[in-house]
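User: Here's a structure from my thesis project, written as C-alpha cells. My advisor, Dr. K., wants to see whether a designed sequence matches the one we expressed. Can you design one independently, without my sequence as a hint?
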C-alpha cells in the first residue's frame, strides 16, 4: 500500500536523557500538529533528526525501535555534522542569505560539504523505506538538495517540497557560490510550495536567470518534466488555540498574571531570539512611544517574551546582550514604584501560559525585519474569543499578505511604529471587533489542515498532469504507423495549428503567410476527398480566410471563437460579448507605451499583446508583470489570460481550441484523426482528441500529445510523406 513519507530536519518529538533513560515528548509546533493526521495514518512515516547526538549503536537501536512505534524513523547525526550542517551551513549561510542579512553570511567550503553529506544521509534513509507509489514531502531550507537526490534514485517518484522561510530575491540569492546546486536540488521536486507570491516570484526569477528555465503560470519544464510552483500560506490549528484560550487552566493563569501586572494595558511581543525578528528596533520604538506620549506613562506596559535560541553563537550572544541592555535602560529610565514599562522574560512558556498572554493583551506587536510567515500573530487572533484587541504586523512577514485588516507597518520606520501603537491603543472597540472578526474568519478557513490538504492536492494534480503529458518522439517506426493508418482510412480529420507548427516564427507576424512548399502541402492535403483539414489557430478570421482561400480548408480562428466549416460562413459556438475589450485595451496600451517594440493586435473577441521584437529580458519581465495585472483585473470578468510564444492573449474563458475541435469530432466521425500544435493553447486540442488519434506536439516541453517532434519542418515532412 502506497504511503506518505514526511521529511524534515527535526522529528516532531523532543528526546531527552534522564538517569540513563530516554524520554520522549511530542512537539507542539504547527508543522507537527498539521501533519499529525498524515504521518500517523496507515504505513505513513516521518523521517528526521531526533534532536540530539547519539553515538552508541545500542542507543541508536533503542531510539529507532521506540520511534518506529510512533511512525517515525530517525536520521542520526554526529556532533560534527550538527555543528557544520545545522549550526553552520543551514543557519550561518542559508538563514542570513534568505532573510537578507547578507552581512552575516559565512562562506565555508567545509560547511557546504557537510550540508551535501547530510542531505545524502537523509536520502539514504528515505530510500531504505521508499516504494514505487510512495509520496515524499520534504520540508525547509536544511534539505534543499534532497529532492534532486531522491529524483536520481526514483525518476518517477512523487516529491513535494515546502520552504517555510522567505526565498530571497535573485540579487541576494546570487551571492551564494553554490546557488545553482541549491536550485537544481529544489527542482528535483514535482511541486514546490512557498508562503507568499513574492517568495514564489523570487524563486522563479532565480530559476530563469541562473538555470535558464522560464515558466508558464508557475510551471517549469525541467528535463521534459513539468514542475509546479505555487504560493500556499501556512495556517495554524485554529481550533486548538481557540479551545486553549477557553480552557480552565488558561483562565486561572490569566487571573494570576493580571493580579501581578495590575490593570494597565498590555502590548504583547513573543519571538525566538533571532536578528530577523527586529527585537531591538521594537524596544526602541516602544521607548520613543513613551517619550512622545507621556499620558501613557504608568498605563501601558510591554510584555516581552524572548524564547532562547543559539545564544552561545556570536551574533545571537551579541543580540541577547543588546536586548538585555535596552530593557534595563528603558526600565531604569521610565519605571515607577508601582509600574514597570517592560515585563521581560527570556524563556519559553507552555501553551496555556501563552494563551493567557494572548487573552490579556490589548495589542500584539509582531514586527519582524523579515519572516516567512509568522504564526504568533495568527495564534493571537485565534485566542481572541471576545474579538477585542489589535494586531500590529510587519509588512515583511508573510502573514501580512493574508491579514490586511491588521495595522501594517514597515519595521524600519520607527515613527510609523510609534504612530501604529497610538492608533492601536485608541482604536474604538467596534472597529477592533470588525477587524478581528474578518481575520478570524480567514484563519478558520485557511487553517493548517486546509494547507496540508491543498498541498497534497496540488502535488497529486501535477503528478497526474505529468502522466498525461508523457510523449514519445516521432521516429521512423511511428512515421510508418501514421502513414499506414492514413492510407487505410476512409474518413480523415486533420487539425493543424498554424504559427510554430506549419511555419516558423517571424518578428513581424504578417510575414508568416504560406510559402511555396506549404502551399503545395495544403493544396494536396485538402484536395483529397477523404480528408477534412482544419487549420486551428489563434490568428484572426480575416487573416486566415485570406491566406487559405485557395484551398478546401476549414478554419477555427481566435483560439476557438470563430468556426468555418466547408461551404459555410464563419460562426461562433456561443454568444459572446466584447464589452470588456475597451478597459483591457487601455491596460495593454499602457504596457505598449512602456515597452518599445511591443504592440497590440485587436481581434473580434480577443486582444493580443505581442513582444517578439522587445529586448530579451525586458519582454519577459513585462510579461510577468502584465499577466499578474491582467489576472487580477479579470478575476470576475469570465476572461482567460493565455501566454503563448512571445504573446499574451486575453479572451472569453468559455472558449478554447479543444471545445471548437470537438464540433468537428462530433459532426464528422473519422477513422483517422491527427492533431498538430506547438504551444500550451494547443493542449486543449490534444486533450479533446480520441485515444486513437495521432496527436503531435512541436517542441520539447511536456504535453498531452502522444508524440512530439523538434520543429515545424518535421511536421511538414510528416505531411509530405502522407500526400506522396
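Assistant: Designed independently from the structure alone:
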Amino acid at each position: 500500500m502506497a504511503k506518505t513519507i514526511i521529511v524534515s530536519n527535526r522529528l516532531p518529538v523532543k528526546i531527552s536523557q534522564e538517569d540513563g533513560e530516554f524520554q520522549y515528548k511530542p512537539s507542539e509546533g504547527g508543522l507537527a500538529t498539521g501533519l499529525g493526521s498524515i504521518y500517523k495514518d496507515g504505513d505513513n512515516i516521518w523521517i528526521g533528526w531526533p534532536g540530539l547526538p547519539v553515538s552508541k549503536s545500542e542507543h541508536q537501536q533503542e531510539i529507532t525501535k521506540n520511534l518506529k512505534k510512533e511512525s517515525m524513523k530517525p536520521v542520526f547525526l554526529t556532533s560534527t555534522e550538527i555543528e557544520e550542517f545545522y549550526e553552520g551551513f543551514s543557519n550561518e549561510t542559508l538563514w542570513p542569505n534568505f532573510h537578507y542579512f547578507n552581512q552575516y553570511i559565512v562562506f565555508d567550503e567545509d560547511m557546504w560539504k557537510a550540508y551535501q553529506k547530510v542531505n545524502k544521509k537523509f536520502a539514504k534513509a528515505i530510500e531504505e523505506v521508499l516504494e514505487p507509489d510512495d509520496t515524499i514531502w520534504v520540508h525547509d531550507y536544511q534539505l534543499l538538495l534532497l529532492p534532486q537526490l531522491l529524483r536520481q534514485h526514483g525518476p518517477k517518484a512523487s516529491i513535494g517540497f515546502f520552504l517555510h522561510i522567505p526565498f530571497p530575491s535573485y540579487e541576494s540569492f546570487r551571492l551564494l557560490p553554490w546557488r545553482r546546486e541549491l536550485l537544481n536540488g529544489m527542482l528535483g521536486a514535482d511541486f514546490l510550495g512557498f508562503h507568499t507570491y513574492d517568495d514564489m516570484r523570487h524563486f522563479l526569477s532565480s530559476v530563469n536567470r541562473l538555470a535558464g528555465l522560464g515558466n508558464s503560470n508557475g510551471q517549469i519544464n525541467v528535463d521534459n518534466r513539468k514542475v509546479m510552483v505555487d504560493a500556499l500560506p501556512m495556517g495554524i490549528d485554529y481550533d486548538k488555540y481557540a479551545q486553549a484560550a477557553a480552557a480552565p487552566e488558561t483562565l486561572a493563569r490569566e487571573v494570576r498574571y493580571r493580579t501581578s501586572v495590575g490593570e494597565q494595558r498590555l502590548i504583547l511581543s513573543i519571538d525566538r531570539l533571532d536578528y530577523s525578528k527586529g527585537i531591538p528596533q521594537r524596544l526602541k520604538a516602544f521607548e520613543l512611544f513613551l517619550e512622545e506620549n507621556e499620558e501613557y506613562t504608568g498605563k501601558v506596559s510591554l510584555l516581552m517574551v524572548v524564547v532562547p535560541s543559539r545564544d552561545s553563537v556570536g551574533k545571537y550572544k551579541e543580540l541577547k546582550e543588546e536586548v538585555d541592555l535596552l530593557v534595563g535602560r528603558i526600565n531604569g529610565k521610565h519605571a515607577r514604584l508601582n509600574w514597570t514599562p517592560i515585563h521581560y522574560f527570556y524563556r519559553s512558556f507552555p501553551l496555556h501560559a501563552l494563551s493567557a498572554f494572548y487573552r490579556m493583551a490589548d495589542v500584539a506587536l509582531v514586527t519582524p525585519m523579515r519572516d516567512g510567515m509568522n504564526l504568533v500573530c495568527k495564534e493571537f487572533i485565534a485566542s481572541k474569543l471576545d474579538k477585542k484587541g489589535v494586531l500590529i504586523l510587519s509588512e515583511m512577514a508573510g502573514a501580512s499578505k493574508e491579514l490586511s485588516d491588521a495595522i501594517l507597518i514597515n519595521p524600519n520606520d520607527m515613527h510609523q511604529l510609534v504612530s501604529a501603537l497610538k492608533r492601536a491603543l485608541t482604536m474604538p472597540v467596534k472597529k477592533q471587533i470588525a477587524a478581528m472578526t474578518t481575520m478570524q474568519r480567514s484563519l478558520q478557513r485557511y487553517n493548517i489542515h486546509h494547507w496540508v490538504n491543498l498541498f497534497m492536492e496540488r502535488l497529486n494534480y501535477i503528478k497526474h498532469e505529468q502522466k498525461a503529458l508523457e510523449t514519445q518522439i516521432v521516429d521512423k517506426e511511428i512515421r510508418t504507423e501514421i502513414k499506414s493508418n492514413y492510407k487505410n482510412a476512409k474518413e480523415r480529420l486533420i487539425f493543424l495549428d498554424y504559427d510554430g507548427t506549419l511555419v516558423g516564427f517571424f518578428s513581424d507576424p504578417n510575414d508568416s503567410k504560406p510559402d511555396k512548399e506549404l502551399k503545395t502541402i495544403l493544396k494536396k492535403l485538402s484536395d483529397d476527398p477523404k480528408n477534412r483539414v482544419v487549420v486551428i489557430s489563434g490568428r484572426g478570421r480575416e487573416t486566415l480566410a485570406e491566406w487559405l482561400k485557395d484551398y478546401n480548408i476549414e478554419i477555427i480562428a481566435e483560439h476557438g471563437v470563430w468556426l468555418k466549416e466547408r461551404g459555410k460562413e464563419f460562426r461562433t459556438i456561443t454568444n459572446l460579448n466584447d464589452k470588456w475589450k475597451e478597459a483591457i485595451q487601455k491596460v495593454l496600451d499602457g504596457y505598449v507605451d512602456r515597452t518599445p517594440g511591443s504592440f497590440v493586435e485587436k481581434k473580434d473577441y480577443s486582444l493580443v499583446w505581442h513582444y517578439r521584437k522587445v529586448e530579451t529580458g525586458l519582454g519577459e519581465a513585462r510579461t510577468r508583470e502584465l499577466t499578474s495585472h491582467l489576472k487580477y483585473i479579470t478575476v470576475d470578468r469570465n476572461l482567460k489570460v493565455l501566454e503563448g510564444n512571445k504573446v499574451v492573449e486575453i479572451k472569453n474563458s468559455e472558449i478554447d481550441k479543444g471545445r471548437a475541435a470537438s464540433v468537428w469530432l462530433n459532426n464528422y466521425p473519422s477513422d483517422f484523426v491527427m492533431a498538430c500544435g506547438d504551444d500550451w493553447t494547443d493542449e486543449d486540442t490534444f486533450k479533446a482528441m480520441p485515444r486513437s488519434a495521432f496527436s503531435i506536439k512541436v517542441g520539447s516541453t511536456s504535453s498531452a500529445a502522444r508524440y512530439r517532434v523538434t520543429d515545424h519542418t518535421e511536421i511538414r515532412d510528416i505531411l509530405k510523406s502522407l500526400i506522396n
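When you compare it with your expressed construct, this may help: The CA atoms of residues 273 and 308 lie 6 Å apart.
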